[in-house]
Amino acid sequence: MSDAALTLALSKGRIFDETLPLLRAAGMEITEDPDKSRKLILNTSRDDVRVVLVRASDVPTYVQYGGADLGVTGLDTLIEHGSQGLYQPLDLKIARCRMSVAVRSDFDYAAMVKQGARLKVATKYTTIARDFFASKGVHVDMVKLYGSMELAPLTGLADAIVDLVSTGNTLKANHLVEVERIMDISSRLVVNQASLKMKQAQIRPIIDAFAKALADKRGMERYGFALPMDEAAAKVLIDFGGRQWLVWNAHFKRERIGDVPT
Ligand code: PRT
Ligand code: MG
Q: Is the pLDDT of residue 257 over 60?
């Protein structure tokens, strides 16, 4: 591996699975299945790009200290870690979920907040939880946990939890209800700031390729077909929210872009 080689940090599971199509679209196929081997360093179809598999919560650390040049990490993890030394060029809009407050269904959260009661909150996300309750003026005692937050209200360890919710099935299965939605969460591309300066020529095209893959995906979601993003016209259509009149105002060589008459 030459000095100019790039290392991308990913975590196994949903972030890996949902980053794969973006990598593919950006011309980097991962040639090995991480579930079928114990390898922690994976090759890609590009000689100068390799992937390292780390714990989800370690991705920002790897990128911050240069163990990886780039990485993909959840906004939750990024906020908890802090963004020092990390350039965040793109919201990849993958591994989407929300950060919420949940309580036992028989706990009157609204009344407790109204009374100004002190709440016992269990969470892995102490920074996000502390900031949220401080902004509401609610006093909390924080209990730091590393997993299975749902158990805390059921065992009397806490009144409330702050955790990620996607389908809501985990809460439901444990008789918990969501009482506050703190923020929407998705995964971000993070880049080591020193790498960005020293390896500009390699990193910039990758950021651009990811951005193009995202725009293509959005076009696909919105119109049900891929707009040819190499056409200036299609870019106008996407960048401005697909307003037909913008297309009319633009000049095109082709008569149609996909199924959209121009
Ligand atoms: O598991 P490990 O300790 O190694 O790390 P991790 O849990 O941080 O990794 P992983 O792969 O589980 O999550 C990586 C990232 O995926 C998170 O940082 C989030 O940004 C994002 N993500 C998206 C989620 C979820 N959706 C999600 N539903 N992370 C976790 N969950 C969990 C949640 O904590 C809860 O236990 O799934 C459960 C709720 O799911 P529903 O569908 O039942 O609501
Ligand atoms: Mg997990």
A: no
Query: Who contacts 208 (Cβ-Cβ below 8 Å, separation ≥6)?
Result: none
Give the max Cα distance, the chain.
68
Sorted by sequence, the CB contacts under 8 Å of residue 2 that are 6+ apart come out as 48
CB-facing half-sphere around the CA of 199: CA atoms within 13 A: 23
163 lines ligand 1 (CB under 6 A): yes
Residue owning tokens 């299609």: 234
Counting atoms of ligand 1 from 1, which one is nearest the CA of 173?
43
CB-ligand 1 contact for 74 (6 Å cutoff) = yes
pLDDT band with cut points at 50, 70 and 90 for residue 182? very high
Q: Tell me what percent of the residues of the chain surpass a pLDDT of 70.
A: 83
Q: Compute φ and ψ for 259, nearest 5 degrees.
A: -100, 5
Q: Considering only CA atoms, which residue is closest to atom 17 of ligand 1?
A: 74
Backbone angles phi, psi at 255, to 5 degrees: -85, -25
Dihedral Cα 64, 65, 69, 72, nearest 10 deg: -40
What is the pTM (predicted TM-score) of this model? 0.86
Q: Is the pLDDT of residue 228 over 70?
A: no
pLDDT (mean) for 45-63: 97
CB atoms within 10 A of CB 53: 17
Give the model's pLDDT for residue 164. 98
Distances, alpha carbon 118 to alpha carbons 34, 177, 181, 228, in Å: 45, 19, 20, 56
> In the predicted model, what is the mean pLDDT of the chain?
88
Contact 227, 257 (CB under 8 A): yes
Closest CA to 99 of 34, 39, 164: 164
